[in-house]
Amino acid sequence: QVQLVESGGGLAQAGGSLRLSCAASGRIFSWSIMGWFRQAPGTERDFVAAITWSGSDTEYADAVKGRFTISRDKAKNTVYLQMDSLKPEDAAVYYCASASSWFKTQDQVDWWGKGTLVTVSS
Questions:
Q1: Is 24 a residue whose pLDDT tops 90?
Q2: Is the pLDDT of residue 28 over 90?
Q3: Helix (H, G, I), strand (E, B), or coil: what is residue 75?
Q4: What is the DSSP letter of 84?
Q5: Tens-digit pLDDT profile for residues 89-120
Q6: DSSP 89-119
């Protein structure tokens, strides 16, 4: 069992920044993959970024490369998503995700958080 609790969503202006946090508990291992997906109304849940719990590898969706940064703090059991240069199209519910192997699609994820809403005003 893995429990994931997101926080940090809210309203930001286009060009601004937000930092999302995901507090993880339960069976987290060094090989666990932690990451983020997002889902806008009427769309599918899309991959955003992922990181190994060891922190050795990261992966990003093309749409966020160079603007978003994923990181983790093992001491706090927390994964972060720093979102800079926000665009209106980044608005969505952001979900924290975890699995025992790399994921890019939602069917590859084992555990989900409940999500946090990000709104971006133009």
A1: yes
A2: no
A3: helix
A4: -
A5: 999 999 999 999 999 999 999 999 999 999 99
A6: GG-EEEEEEEESS--SSGGG-SEE---EEEE
| Dihedral (Cα; 93, 27, 82, 49), 10-degree rounding | -70
d(CA 109, CA 97): 6
pLDDT for res 56: 83
Query: Are 24 and 3 a contacting pair, CB within 8 Å?
Result: yes
pLDDT of residue 86: 98
Helices (H), the chain: none
CA-derived radius of gyration, the chain = 13
Q: How many residues does the chain have?
A: 122
Residue 16 has phi, psi (to 5 degrees) of -90, -170
Q: Judge contact between 48 and 34, C-beta under 8 A.
A: no
